[in-house]
Amino acid sequence: MNEMILVVDDEPKIVKQARDYLEHGGFRVVTAGDGTTALARARHERPDLIVLDLNLPEMDGLDVCRALRRESDVPIIMLTARVDETDRLIGL
Question: Would you state the pLDDT for residue 57?
């Protein structure tokens, strides 16, 4: 497989688990630990999919998603520990 996935999370354990699982599945994986780096990597690497945590330092995941949507239609899977219904709806 040549598909590339960008995993964005500020928790190193989550990033490692996701990377290990995805690489075992044959995907190429790039990572970012904050929103600013995520945008730069997405623009440079052009991933086929982004797994995006909403609670990020510097720039939160929703802001990253909005910025990406202005320039790309890459599929984004959002990860969150937020339970508020409003947060869920905003993510859609």
Answer: 86
